[in-house]
C-alpha cells in the first residue's frame, strides 16, 4: 500500500479483459487517492470486455468509497466496458464531486452524439448526490500521447495536479 499518494494517473485498456481486471487490485494499493486520472486506450486486439456485473462483484475499494473527489476519464469512446466501469464508479463513490469525461478530438461527429454516449450513466443510482459531470473534447486525437507530449508539466511537482489535462485541453483546470 502507498497511502501518501493523493493524485493517480493510469492507462487502462478496457477492451483487454485481463488489463481491466487489474484496475481494482491496483486501486486498492492507493487507499487515499483523491484525484484519479484514467485514460482509456483503444486496442486493435480486444480480448473481451468486462460487464457491469464484474464491477458490481469487485467488492469495496477504499479510495473509491471514501476519498476520490475528482475523476477525469480520458479517451472516452462510449464503449460498453467504459460505460460499465463509469456506472460502477458513480454508484460507489459518495465523495465524488466531479466526473470529467474527455473524448478524443474527432471521436464523435457532434456534441449531441457525444452526449448520447454518456446518457446510460444517468440511469445509475449515483452514490454522490452532489456530483456533476463535465463532457469535453480533447485537443488531441486518438493515438496522440497527451501525457508524454507534456512530460515537463507532468513531472513538475510544484503543480497542484501534474495530470490535469494541461496538454489535453489547453490548460483547463477544474
TrEMBL record:
Residue intervals of the FBD domain: 56-101
Domain of life: Eukaryota
Domain spans labelled F-box/LRR-repeat protein 15/At3g58940/PEG3-like LRR: 1-37
Listed name of the protein: FBD domain-containing protein
InterPro entries xrefs: F-box_dom-containing (IPR055302), FBD (IPR006566), LRR_FXL15/At3g58940/PEG3-like (IPR055411)
